[in-house]
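Explain my protein.
***
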Amino acid sequence: MLLWTSSPPDPALRPLVTLSMKSKQSSGGLVYSTDSGRMCPGCRLPLAQCGCARQPAAPAGDGIVRVSRQSKGRGGKDVTLVSGVVLDAAALERLGKQLKAACGAGGTVKNGVIEVQGDHADRLVGMLLVQGWKARRAGG
């Protein structure tokens, strides 16, 4: 570490000193405190009080709900997929439950996509349109 009481003796070293000081200041920050334990790097609060991790970002979409039919990798069984619904996990589960009950079929919600067993694409598009969603039939 270089220490000068005033400016560096050689003017050519001046950019190096300011660069190293800037990087040291910007990369620094409180990581652990003996008072409260680990600190969140985003909001600088203790992890117990941090709200960053508890609020996952809502998935971005173009506003169109796409309904498609798929049978690949499912032993020849048809499954209707509803994707592009911009809802949090709990609301997506509720919507999936409503759609499955209306079709009288089983299904699941995986990775933000509602899967309904069977070929119910036309029925699901109609139901989503009635509920106010901008739904389109996708695929063949």
